[in-house]
Amino acid sequence: MKNIHKTTRLVIFLFCLGNTMIAQNWIRVWEDEFTNGISSDWVFETGNGSSGWGNNELQYYRRENATVVNGNLVITAKKENFGGYNYTSARMKTQGRKNFKYGKIEARIALPTGQGVWPAFWMLGSNINTVGWPACGEIDIVEHVNNDPDIHGTIHWQDNNNTYAYYGGKTAVNVNDYHTYSVEWSATDIRWFVDGVQYHMVSISEGINGTSEFHNDFFLLLNLAIGGNWPGFSIDESRLPAKMYVDYVRVYEKGQGNPTPSTGPVTLYADCPFSGTSVALSEGRYTRAQLEALGMVNDHVSSLKVQSGYQATLYWDDNFSGSSLIKTSDTSCLTNDTNWNDKMTSIVVSKIPTGEASLFIEAENYTNMSGVQKENCSEGGQNVGYIDAADWMVYDAIEFSSSGNYTIEYRVASAVNGGVLSTDVNAGTTVLGEVTIPNTGGWQNWTTVSHTITINAGTYSLGLYAVAGGWNINWIKITKQNANRTSVSTLDAKASDNIETTLVYPNPFKDTIHINFNSKTAKMVVFDPQGCTLLDPEVIESGDSLDTSNWAKGIYIIVLEYDGTKKTRRIIKN
Q1: DSSP H helical ranges for 102-143
Q2: Is it true that domain 266-351 has CATH number 3.90.1330.10?
Q3: Is pLDDT at 552 greater than 90 in this prediction?
Q4: What is the pTM of this model?
């Protein structure tokens, strides 16, 4: 983070962007999830250091400015007079407690912005007290200044001429949102990533250009500076207090690696036909990083072999997104498939289901959503997380090829009890059913839950709605049940009691609500948040809408009575 001087000469640095593969079999060796406070592995630095920590920073660091709120570390920079300075903040390090050499270092962080605000997650050489800076080396995993659109990843060192040198990269990020910032550091290079996407790399192989510093132990730092040589000395105090949120910090070491399997149901080849670099894949899901770790360069597959009984689903983009192509037999050259030669980035290898094939949906590939976030998944790719009550996702053009019963499986994780997921179609007009999400012991500890739904053949917009939040979801799998496995008849809107077709949506709502039910007309009564009658009983038709623009915020109860039944719905005005 420190001592970046804009007048320093630019170092022309040799780095490689070739086909070097880094094993992705990472083994977690240290972490702080900030679940039960701040780990004792952190040491807090206080004061203003020497010359404002070498950068003429304007704040006084205090332990009190680092707290844990809802499982997140929060570093707060304040307009506060203390120790002769006008601002306070916090700076913490693992020096003397935890040191690391090589590996993957990452943190999930939401960064503050504002003129004069300078947050950072970085590393310093553990021998700094002996050799000083920059001879100890510095690795900036992520830095951001002011209101700039870019984040920065940089190394600083002392080159072969004993001269200060630095080399950095940058990429545009909405820093106020949570992102996972990481470096993958090996004996040959250091690579920078945002949410798993690489944006910068530097070679340190054999200490090239005097980079021997980066083959020693380093410790971690987190801090939020105010002012200094880089952001400048004009502070927008209207942006204070500024808060830096850290969900977790994790460190991994490279494992023994998963050797390229000698056999597998699917084999990828770089050239046509069935030649060049090859990778055999067992059943599973492979992201770009995982394929590269096995030796297959991105956008470099030209042919493949598929064993009988298996299928390979190729994806144009990473994390199983974008255009897809299913292969169930050998393909000597993908030039025969329009636009697919040297285009594959991720792949799913699976058995061909008996009977009708299952439909597999990556949860993060929603068409629309409210309230949720994507994050990196321990099972590869991404999952949908941070799901609260009333959040939802919609997946368009989901085809149910025939009427009848289907099993819907959900790959879920949760660290709390009480999560409930509801599934519906066509903007919630038909609720297919609910499933309870168990406490799996962690947000990335995955299990599969399922239920049976009944539906008419057709193409629908499939909706997932959080009746109760506190869960993550990785994928959805829909499988048609065989006729001999069920005695439930095909969905009939008049005869079936298994599907709840009374719906008031959207929920929560703003200016309008729509009401659907399984009858032509119904008598409706609406009660306001105080329990008083807001709308006297009146007859409405299914599909009617209500203007709610003049309703106050709060919880309302709608009672519908039709066909001798009474349905009560609880809705929320935001």
Answers
A1: 128-131
A2: no
A3: no
A4: 0.47
